[in-house]
Each structure stands twice: as C-alpha cells, then as structure tokens.
Design a protein that fits this description.
heterodimer; A: Rossmann fold; 2 domains; seven-stranded mixed β-sheet; B: mainly alpha; two-stranded antiparallel ribbon
Chain lengths: 447, 354
Amino acid sequence: MNMRKTLLGATAMVALAASLAGPLAQAAANEQFFPVLVYRTGPYGPNGVPWANGYVDYLKMINARDGGVNGVKLTWEECETAYATDRGVECYERLKGKGPTGATVVQPLSTGVTFALTEKAPKDKIPLITAGYGRSESADGAVFKWNFPMLGTYWTAADIIVQALIKREGGAGKLKGKTIALVYHDSPYGKEPIAMLEARSKMHGFKFIKLPVTHPGVEQKATWLQVRRERPDYVLLWGWGVMNATALKEAVATAYPLDRMYGVWWSGAEPDVKDVGESAKGYNALAMQYGAGIGKVQQDILKYVYDKNNGTGARDLVGQVLYNRGLYSAMLAVEGVRRSQEQYGKKPMTGEQVRWGLENLNFNDAALKRLGIEGQLRPLRTTCDDHMGSSWARMQTWGGKKWVMHDAWYEADMQIIKPMVREAAAKYAKEHNITQRDCAKEMTSGS
Amino acid sequence: MLYRENGQFKTRYVDDAQIFPIRQDRLFIGAVLLIAFVAVPLLGSDYLLRALLVPFLILALAAIGLNVLVGYCGQISLGTGAFMAVGAYAAFNLMVRLPGMPLLIALVLAGLIAALAGMVFGLPSLRIRGLYLAVATLAAQFFSDWVFAHVPWLTNGSSSGSVTAPQLQVFGFVIDSPIRKYLFCLAILSVLALLVKNLVRGRKGREWMATRDMDVAASVIGISPVRAKLSAFAVSSFIVGIAGALWAFVHLGSWEPAAFNIDLSLKLLFMIIIGGLGSVMGSLFGAAFIVLLPIFLNRLLSFLGLQASTSFISHLELMTFGVLIVLFLIAEPHGTAKLWSTAKNKLRLWPFPH
C-alpha cells in the first residue's frame, strides 16, 4: 500500500468517525427543535412528499408571521425514513437530542415506526403525535402517557365507514347478510381496523372478509380475483402509496362498481386517484374532517412563505389533501408548545412540558378562528383520559377531476370504541408492567 | 518490520493449534476487544452506540451465521430473514408464555428452534444445489412472511400482527440504556464469533469446506454430505436465529413480520459477498459496509456544510452506495476480507518487499 492510498484511507476513516460521532452539544438558544421524519423517496414517496411539505411550510410560516411561538424560534431538521422501521428508528435516535431542549415531538407518519417509537418515547420523554394513524388503543392516555393519536385512529375510521354504509343502506338491520371485504396493506397499518370491523360484523351480522396485499402493493391480481369471485357488497380500501392507485386500477379492470368502494383517509388523496382519473369516478373515501382546499391558514402560508420564494414544494400543491394533513400535524405540535408555555413560561419547552400541553389542548371555536382553520377542523379537546381529542370525519367522493365533500358529519361511536380501547390498553399495560395513571385524580388536582 | 513472526518458535502442538498463531495478531485482537469493550462505551455518544453500533453488531452476527452456510459450506440461502424471524418470534413466545424465563436461556432456545427450522428447510439441499437451492430457500422466506402474519397464536393474538419485546434482564441488569444494549450485543457476538472461528478450524469446518469445494470428492473420502450440509444449516440458523431475536428485542423493541422480509435476506447476502465469503472477519467488514456506509453517505453533505433537500440526499445516498458496491466488487471480487489478508501479507515484508 503506498503512502497516498494510506493517507486517503486515513482521511476517509477520520471523516467517517467524525460524521458518525453524533450531534455536538449546542449552545442554549431561544429555539424549539422539531425533528421531521419524512419519506420523499420510495414507493410511498408520492404520498410522503405533500405531507412533509405541509409540515415544514407551517413551521416556516409560524416563524415568518409570528416570529416563532411567543418569541421562541422554531427550528427543524428533516430525516428520510423511506417508510422503513429501522431507518425511522435511526432518524429518531439521530434527532432526539438536537436543539436546546431536545426533540419537541415526533411524528413518523408510519404505523410501523410508531409501534417501534411507542417503546422508546417514554424513556426519552418525547411525546409522539400520530394524527390519524398509529396504535388505536393509544387513545387511552392513562396507559399511553406519551402517545397522542389526535383527530382519529383506525378504529374510529373503520367505525365511521360502517356508519356511512348503514346510512346508505337505510338502517343498521339492512347490513345483515351483506358481505364487506377489506383490501388492506399487509402491515400493522392495514391490520389495525380488523378488530373494529370484526366487532361491527358481529353486531350487524354482515360477513367480513379480509384480503391482504403485500408491500408495496403493486401486485394485486390475486386479491381482485377473489373480489370477482366473492362479489362483496362493499370493498373497504386500506392502502398507502402506490397500493391505492393500483387497487383502483384493478377495481376498474374487474368492473367492480367504484361507488361501492370506500377508502380510509390515507387512501383518499390526489396521488391515489390522479392516474386513474375519470374512470375512478364515484370512488368514496373518508376525509379527516377536511379534504383539499385553501383557507385562512393556507393563505398565510402562501403569503408569508411562497410569496417570499421560501416554499418547500411547488406552489400549486398547497392545499392538497395530504398537504393539509401535514399542516394540521405541525399545527398540533406547535399548539402543544404554545399551551405548555402558558403553564411553564415563554421559553423553549422540553418534551415533558410539551406532553402536558398536548394533554391539555382545547381548540374551541375561538381557537379555530385564531388558527385560521375555521370550517376545516371541528373543536378538539384532549384530556388525560382521551388523547384523541376528537373523532369527527366526513366522506368525500372522487368526481373525476377533484374530490367532492359530502355534507354529513360522522362521529365515531364511543360506546363501541371506548371499551375496546380500554381492553387493549389494559392488556398492553399488563404486558409492560405499566402502572396506569389515575386520570380522575390528575384532572381534579389541576396539574 | 513490526508484523513478522520471526523468532516466535512453537515448541508445543497447542501453540501451533491456537486461533492466532502470530503474537502480533493476538495483541491486535486483544487491543480491538479492549477498545470495543472499554473505550467505545466510555467515549461513544448514545447515538453512536444505539443507532449505529447495535444494529451493526446484530447484523454482523447474522452475517457470520450466514457465512457458515454460504461461505464455508457453499449452500446459497435466501432464507436468512426467515430464520431470523423464527428466532425472534420463538424468543418472544418463550418469554411471554413462560413467565420467569431468563433472557439468555430464551435466546439459546430460540436459536435451537431456528436451527430446527433451518434443518427442515435445508432438506432440499440434499438433492439440489447452487441457484436452485437459493430458490428453494426462498420458500422459507415466503413461508415465514406468511405464517407470522396469519397465525395469531404466534403473535399472542396481537390485532395488528405487531408484537413488543418484554423487559430484558440478564443477571439482574436491565438492558435498557444504549451502553448496556451495546455491551450485551457485543458480548454475544464475541462468544459466537469465537465459537464459529473454532468450529471452522476443526473437523466440522473441514467437512463443510470439503463439501463446498466438491461434494462428490468429499463423500468419496468419507464425509457424509447429509450430515455436513444439515449441520451447516443447523449451526447457521442457530446463530441467525439468535441474531434475529436480538434484532427484534434489543434493536427494534417492537416489530412486525415485515421487519424480516426478503430485503433483509438479500442485505445479509450482500454483506457476506462484499465482506468476503468464508471469513468471520469479512462478515464484520461486510456488515459495516452495508449498515454504516448508507448512514454515513446520508450525513456526508451536511457534515461538509452543504445544504441539500432530503430527497436529493437520499437519492444521492442510493446512487453512491450502488456505485461503491460495483467498484468494490471490480477492485476486489473476493471481498474486503481478501483485502485484509493481502494487507497482512504485504505488512510482513514491509518495508523491504521483494
């Protein structure tokens, strides 16, 4: 080995060691750090990109419009997970210690990563917001102190779709003897609704069949062959990324009536239907309260971020379904910080303090107006007992060019969901030796 | 000059049969172990230990296991992920269903169950070889993907097929901090690597290598191909199964069957091809290449002070990684282990090469 090669090798080794050595200690600054776990590549990239853009744009807008939260500037760093659990864990470990107070909240936008981080977040004292995804039983704050599945879980989603079907059939009794098929992504994400659909199937006497699709979901011929054979009355779609577009194409090819297909809110965005276009007309999907559109908050983003050429993505993507959902996710995190500042002072908050803020959020009508999301979200209120805050949703139908929102609002039936959440959470607590918090006591003591 | 065995006379057979016959090698390995067990935990940040070294150690262990099968016995396997999954779910069920089960015993039993699974799926190797065997082991992969996703008993009835590791405890120490996780994985890796190193130097290893080089000739000189191949499957799957249990329990903490999919099997195969077939050291190099290099590439730009979008960085990472694999295999088709031994040979003559 000659000298030059040795030197080159040594330099490379030093560079490797230095870059892997992890974040250096930073001087305390008046900053609040947000790790942003995203996926802008891979089979789920088309759906990950708008969400990530919305998330980052909202943080940018808060800095530009308000100068941060009560003078505390927001900082963030993106980390690509490619929807893979192990890379997600690496990203979390990489970013959790950054900023003067460490990571504020984590929002992985992946049920698999959520399951892995549910074990880690309590030890690191970092709250985990999973708006519209994640573990359904984590709505129980008495057991899952650090999880916040706000705005809905897969159990509420499944419940609401069944309610919509009941409404369409004209009564719960009419579902008896019907067949409902679930075409789902064969992962924790896709399997989450099964427990709820099984419970509802027992209640109403409909036949429930499960049709799994393996990751990433580009091969669904066998699944749709089964649909052709069984001819279910309704098909529920629980897909993500390329799986959604493929499922719709296969449904068209199988000549399955698309108006009898109901997607979850992750199967109802622009990237899912745009390749199918006109032929997917009539396909229904849940909307997590609001779909695509531009309201006050989106206008602020256009004004303070895009007009200054600071936008994360293309300007015409602002206000898309998944963009808005990324925006709400960031908003929940920022409002958690704002709420905790009321309790602990106007300075950068630690993860533990933000957790308190998230548990005591109250978006009433005045707050919705202040946030510029009037007409987009309904009031939301979290407590120690209820980390979900609200379970409203609406239905939307693909009109061939754009999503058409239905007027009716649905709220998940808590009489069915609450006991299921309690039971699953209690089982988790037992497996993990978690002492449940006494929420009644904590709420009266006012802390 | 420094690395030369001149003057080291071996007067007993024991001296001749030791793993590292050259004193400098022994010192070097001793120093490496000392650094790994003492210096790294003391100086390394939590991120380094937890997010980089723990996955590296566990996958290196799995690569060593796979190397027994592919590198030493010449049986190509694409089912490594499946055997890791068997180990992980076996350990999970043992811990959950038998309360009070010590972690180490659960790990060993999980390894034995994986070994059994490995032997069953190794049966086709008695009739077919080469690429056809690779396709047959692929069946193990798809079977495990399916069985762990669809048999609720194996996941203790979890509604989404995702299970969570119980609390880990060894001799009263709770394995929860990054340092403890790192030391636990390092200790297991060291013990099993030593075991494999010894095994391949002995009778069993020679049987495997004879079978690898030419199975007809091997059976002519009295080696039973059935026993050689199945024992390689068993030993390989045992180690891979333990690695799988560690990957699930220590690294992921909570996992679903997809954590052990075909991607992982291929990754492990790449590790030993790049690292060097038939070499314990090569497995470590290969694991470092596959686990650490992508993360290094991902962070390189920000380390150099350049700003770039996340998607650009991850595309760049994939492209650079691909180019490096190609370059590596052109420059040294026998893997990094070969580079290592070439360097050692040159060092013996340094500074007066002839």
